[in-house]
């Protein structure tokens, strides 16, 4: 099993250094709190620390979780840090926490780790990373496409023909760009084969007006229909529906 790794974004490290330098000017009630961030979806042993908040987990930004604690009191005792970790992890039975503390006359934060189950300090790894790395991990991009390939279905040559047609298609596409406009994508595709250039775009919520079953069998005045569609569109937006792009090209 891989060791737990806490990746601390550069901006958090710089902010912690700044508040460490002025800790004497900070009120005591703000000198301790939580470190928040998220765990990498592709690796549960990697967590990104994004920032700190003073208070309980109700103060955490949406979509983040408590990853540890911080203490701006210069050279805090081990017991003080253990008590802080136990308090912040009372709803958990196991796991690891990162502990950010300060040391007198040093700019860099001292980083330690706490095991929730044993209620004691433990060994983990830490790394300072660029903010962009953490941001990239929060964006999941999936592209689905229907690819029409022309080749003979002979089982003996299937793999060769498939590779040949895929490579040919990739060579035809010179460039493309996607621009997010409100709830839809504007797609510009530049290809040697002009048939690739024909694309259509479906707005994320616009399909409501095109659904033939939406008002099936119901006589609805035009103005009321418009209001109902708008209400349903807002509801879908609030439900955070998946953003989809559709193209009618053959690639």
TrEMBL record:
**What protein am I looking at?**
Uncharacterized protein
Q: Which organism is it from?
A: Medioppia subpectinata
């Amino acid at each position: 099993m891989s060791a737990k790794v806490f990746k601390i974004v550069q901006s958090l490290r710089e902010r912690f250094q700044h508040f460490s330098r002025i800790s004497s000017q900070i009120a005591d009630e703000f000198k301790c709190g939580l470190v928040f961030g998220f765990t990498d979806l592709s690796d549960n042993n990697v967590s990104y620390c994004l920032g700190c908040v003073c208070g309980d987990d109700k103060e955490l930004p949406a979509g983040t979780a408590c990853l540890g604690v911080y203490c701006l009191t210069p050279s805090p005792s081990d017991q003080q840090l253990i008590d802080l970790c136990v308090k912040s992890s009372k709803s958990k039975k196991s796991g690891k926490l990162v502990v950010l503390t300060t040391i007198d006359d040093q700019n860099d934060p001292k980083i330690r780790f706490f095991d929730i189950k044993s209620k004691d300090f433990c060994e983990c790894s830490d790394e300072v990373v660029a903010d962009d790395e953490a941001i990239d991990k929060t964006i999941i991009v999936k592209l689905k496409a229907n690819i029409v390939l022309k080749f003979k279905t002979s089982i003996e040559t299937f793999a060769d023909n498939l590779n040949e047609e895929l490579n040919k298609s990739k060579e035809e596409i010179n460039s493309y760009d996607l621009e997010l406009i409100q709830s839809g994508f504007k797609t510009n595709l530049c290809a040697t084969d002009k048939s690739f250039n024909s694309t259509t775009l479906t707005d994320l919520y616009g399909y409501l007006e095109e659904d033939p079953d939406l008002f099936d069998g119901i006589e609805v005045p035009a103005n009321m229909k418009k209001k109902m569609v708008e209400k349903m569109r807002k509801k879908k937006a609030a439900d955070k529906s998946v953003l989809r792009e559709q193209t009618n090209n053959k690639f």
